[in-house]
C-alpha cells in the first residue's frame, strides 16, 4: 500500500471517512492490510477504506473476550468519548461497526507506532524531545478538560506517534466525561496520583500528575516512584518521595517543572496553561509540536 502518498492526502481524506456521521460501516468497506499489532482483546490491522482510499487502523475486538473481562461498558464509554474529540494530538476514532463475534473500531493510523517502543529504544529522551511531547500533551489535555473529559490513564503505552512525529493520545479506556468529582480506582499504579491511590475524590488535575510522571520517565527512562513491591510504589506515591538521580544529567529547569506538577495537594499542581509558559517548555519545545527523528 502506498502509505506515504496516502498520508499526504490525510486532511482531505479524513473528512471523507468521517463524512455522514450516520453511515453504517461493514467489513466490505475496507481492504485489509498487514497486522499492526496485538492488544489484550484482539488485533489491529492496516486497512484502506475503499471509497475514499483513506488509510486507517482497524482494531478488531472479540465480543467473547470483552464479555469475559466485563469491559463492554468501558469500551462503549471509550468509543463515545473518543469519537467526539478532534485534536491533532488525539487519535481520531472515525467510527465503529460489529458483527456476531467482533467489534471493529476505525482509527486514525499512527504511522510511527508506539511511543513506548521509542522510549525503550532510546532509554530516555533529550530535553528538546521530552519538552515537545509534554507541551503537545498539555495542549491535548487542555482541550479534553475543556470538554469535561478527564483522561486518567496518561502513560507511554497509551501514546502513538503520527507520520510527522506528532504524539497522539490513543487510549481512552479509563477516561470519563464528568461534571462531578470522581471517586473510582483505575489505571496502573506507577502513574496514579496520591488522591487516586488513596481512593479520595479526584478531578482533572489527576492528568497534571500523570503528565509530570510522564515527563520524568521521558527524561530518566523510568517512572519516579518505581519500586520492586507494589506496596513500596504506593508508599512512595503517597509520600511524594521524588528523587532526581545524578544520571542522566537533566537541567534544573526540567526538575523544577516536574516538582511543580508532582504535588500532593491536587489544587496546588501547576495548571496546564501555566505549564506551557514554563521556561523549560518555552526554551525546549518545538513550536510546531513535531519532533523529527
Ligand atoms: P491495542 O489493542 O490498542 O493495544 O493495540 C495493539 C497494538 O497495535 C499497539 O501496541 C500498536 O502497536 C498497534 N496499533 C494500535 N492502534 C494503532 C494505530 N491507530 N496506528 C498504528 N498502530 C496501532
Q: Helix and strand layout, with pairings?
A:
Layout: H1 3-8, H2 10-17, E1 30-38, E2 42-49, E3 55-62, H3 63-68, H4 72-82, E4 93-98, E5 102-108, E6 113-114, H5 115-122, H6 127-146, E7 149-150, E8 159-161, E9 167-169, E10 176-177, H7 194-197, H8 206-220, H9 230-238, H10 252-261, H11 272-275, H12 279-284
Antiparallel strand pairs: 1-2, 2-3, 3-5, 4-5, 6-8, 7-10, 8-9
Catalytic activity: L-threonyl-[protein] + ATP = O-phospho-L-threonyl-[protein] + ADP + H(+); L-seryl-[protein] + ATP = O-phospho-L-seryl-[protein] + ADP + H(+)
Active site: 153
Main location: cytoplasm
Plain-language structure description:
GO terms for molecular function: ATP binding; histone H3S10 kinase activity. Its EC number is 2.7.11.1. It is found in: Cytoplasm, Cytoskeleton, Spindle pole; Nucleus membrane. It catalyses: L-threonyl-[protein] + ATP = O-phospho-L-threonyl-[protein] + ADP + H(+); L-seryl-[protein] + ATP = O-phospho-L-seryl-[protein] + ADP + H(+). Pfam families: Pkinase. By secondary structure, the chain is of the alpha+beta class. It has 2 domains: 87 residues, Phosphorylase Kinase, domain 1 (2-Layer Sandwich), CATH 3.30.200; 172 residues, Orthogonal Bundle (Transferase(Phosphotransferase), domain 1), CATH 1.10.510. It is built from 12 helices and 10 strands. The protein has a 5-stranded antiparallel sheet. The protein has a 3-stranded antiparallel sheet with strand order 6-8-9. β2 and β3 form a beta hairpin. The radius of gyration is 19 Å and the shape is globular. The N terminus is likely disordered. The chain binds adenosine monophosphate (AMP). The site of adenosine monophosphate has 14 residues, from β1, β5 and β6. Adenosine monophosphate binds next to β1, β5 and β6.
Amino acid at each position: 500500500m502506498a502509505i506515504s502518498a496516502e498520508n499526504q492526502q490525510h486532511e482531505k481524506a479524513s473528512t471523507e471517512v468521517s463524512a455522514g456521521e450516520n453511515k453504517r460501516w461493514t467489513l466490505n468497506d475496507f481492504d485489509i492490510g498487514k497486522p499492526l499489532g496485538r492488544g489484550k482483546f484482539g488485533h489491529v490491522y492496516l486497512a484502506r477504506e475503499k471509497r475514499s482510499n483513506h488509510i486507517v487502523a482497524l482494531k478488531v475486538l472479540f465480543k467473547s473476550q470483552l464479555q469475559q473481562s466485563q469491559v463492554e461498558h468501558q469500551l462503549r464509554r471509550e468509543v463515545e468519548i473518543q469519537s467526539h474529540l478532534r485534536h491533532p494530538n488525539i487519535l481520531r476514532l472515525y467510527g465503529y461497526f460489529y458483527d456476531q463475534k467482533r467489534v471493529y473500531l476505525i482509527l486514525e493510523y499512527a504511522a510511527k507506532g508506539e511511543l513506548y517502543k521509542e522510549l525503550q529504544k532510546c532509554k530516555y529522551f533529550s530535553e528538546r524531545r521530552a519538552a515537545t511531547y509534554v507541551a503537545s500533551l498539555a495542549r491535548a489535555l487542555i482541550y479534553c478538560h475543556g470538554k469535561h473529559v478527564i483522561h486518567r490513564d496518561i502513560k507511554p503505552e497509551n501514546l502513538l506517534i503520527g507520520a510527522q512525529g506528532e504524539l497522539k493520545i490513543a487510549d481512552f479506556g479509563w477516561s470519563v466525561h464528568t461534571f462531578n468529582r470522581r471517586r473510582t480506582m483505575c489505571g496502573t499504579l506507577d502513574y496514579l496520583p496520591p488522591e487516586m491511590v488513596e481512593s479520595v475524590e479526584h478531578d482533572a488535575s489527576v492528568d497534571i500528575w500523570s503528565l509530570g510522571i510522564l515527563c520524568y520517565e521521558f527524561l530518566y527512562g523510568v517512572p519516579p516512584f518505581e519500586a520492586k513491591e507494589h506496596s513500596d510504589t504506593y508508599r512512595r506515591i503517597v509520600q511524594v518521595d521524588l528523587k532526581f538521580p545524578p544520571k542522566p544529567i537533566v537541567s534544573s529547569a526540567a526538575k523544577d517543572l516536574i516538582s511543580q506538577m508532582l504535588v500532593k495537594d491536587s489544587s496546588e499542581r501547576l495548571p496546564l496553561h501555566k505549564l506551557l509558559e514554563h521556561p523549560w517548555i518555552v526554551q525546549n519545545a518545538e513550536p510546531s509540536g513535531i519532533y523529527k527523528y
